Amino acid sequence: MEKQLLYSESHEWVKWINESEAFVGLSEYAASQLGDIVYVNIDADEVSLKDVLGDIESVKAVSDFYSPLEGTVVEVNQEIIDNPALINEDSENTWICKIANVTNNVKLLSKEEYDAFIKEQ
Hints:
By secondary structure, this protein is of the alpha+beta class. The protein has helices at residues 28-34, 78-82, 85-90, 111-119; strands spanning 6-7, 12-18, 21-26, 37-42, 46-47, 52-58, 62-66, 71-76, 97-100.
């Protein structure tokens, strides 16, 4: 099981804990595009691929936060609910939620593939 970050085309990252559980966060690219994050709301439970997990509000806009996996949201990082700016400080080491019972085998991008993808944006 890969321990490095993998990425979705909707700018979330996935870090596998084991074969059926993973942490999910916001890519550094997405965090920089949003600007200063002031509020995070995660209200999903059972999610399918690309379902909206919740929303992330910045000084610029409110953006949907999509699920890069199919499964069950079992934990939300309370630290980022209390202090959303942590995402701006270190987005790729700050998880937003944990998804368990992952049932899909979605194609996620390596760091190199993701970097190439965002250059095309």
